[in-house]
Amino acid sequence: MNILITSGGTSEKIDQVRSITNHSTGQLGKIISEQFLDAGFSVTLVTTPTAIQPNVHPRLTKVIINDVAELQTVLEKETPTHQLLIHAMAVSDYSPVYMSGFQAVKETPNLEQFLHQTNQESKISSEEDYQVLFLKKNPKLISWVKTWNPEIRLVGFKLLVDVSQNQLLSVARASLEKNQAEMIVANDLSEIQDGKHRAYLVTKDAVQIAETKLEIAQEIYRHITNKG
Amino acid sequence: MNILITSGGTSEKIDQVRSITNHSTGQLGKIISEQFLDAGFSVTLVTTPTAIQPNVHPRLTKVIINDVAELQTVLEKETPTHQLLIHAMAVSDYSPVYMSGFQAVKETPNLEQFLHQTNQESKISSEEDYQVLFLKKNPKLISWVKTWNPEIRLVGFKLLVDVSQNQLLSVARASLEKNQAEMIVANDLSEIQDGKHRAYLVTKDAVQIAETKLEIAQEIYRHITNKG
User: Fold this and answer.
1) Of chain A's two ends, which shows fewer C-beta atoms within 10 Å, N or C?
2) Taking CB atoms and an 8 Å cutoff, what residues of chain B touch A160?
3) pTM for the complete prediction?
């Protein structure tokens, strides 16, 4: 079984010197990669430049990407030759479209025009006291995975912040169905700290709880190999 | 002489999972730190979590910060006990104030109200096709350095993108005067690649050109110790 894993967080450029970044150390993706490598599988890890990386391994191939557009290209190419995707990457929801000084925005009757402009500057000017950044929703790549490879097994992730356990599980179950995943690993940022990482591994008929990144990796591994 | 050096790039949070980050590897600040450590000076390095770090050294003290507010606190505390500040950090020009769906912005007659709101959510919702982020200018900390310590020697940096050499030098000279710096290291992102890093070291009566990060560090060192 060839395994495709994503880790780290994507960045979307505002201009040549600034971007919007989704936080993710890459630590969990590293541990999951090592879990499968140690068990003899081949792993393709799609990750980001600042993410923590697994050690070099003869059965590990790394692909470094920066943003959602690059991630899409890589996933579209790699999913057909892999039998499992574990999509742990923190993917940017939105990408910058246009940045403007506040005054120009305030004086423009039709704000829609800013959704179809592009900054020509390489480094956007920083004179005005306030600026306005217009952002466009990125495609949800996880929902396209099965169109690229209907046979691939899919483990998705859902990170929320400060929600109830019920809400977290409900969002995870919706994602499970919508994306035809066999597992969604649901976690709340407020339960990730000091070496602890609580996660709910949600499948169609069960919920497993893990308390550390290593337990998450082990539970995913057990689930995949028991059913594989 | 106690030397204060800043390196890396600051990040300003949009919410608990996203931020706007200024790109900087921290490599130049690392090399400058090593130049002064090797020569027997004590260095306090103010840097960011993902920046490349110098090796551990008995005369090196590191302070890790994330955003401009934290940088301000540290600089205000540290400048009075240092004789030189080399401010190589890429500092965020703007910080997020409020993020809203596009529809709500479009339907609000008085856009100023968004400049005085705060998001209550820990993770801002990602349902709408377009979002709007309002940003406020950060204080230019370099202009406050001499008020915290009028005696401190100051080396500033200016990064522009795709400008003429004349424009770069003119912006550097303006910064030299405005911030009462004794040197501004001016560079253009388009001239930083593949191990090369062209910089113009602008002082009141001269311009030195350096072609690599090591040359930049050596030229700063030579200037400081010749005049010290």
Assistant:
1) C
2) 123
3) 0.91
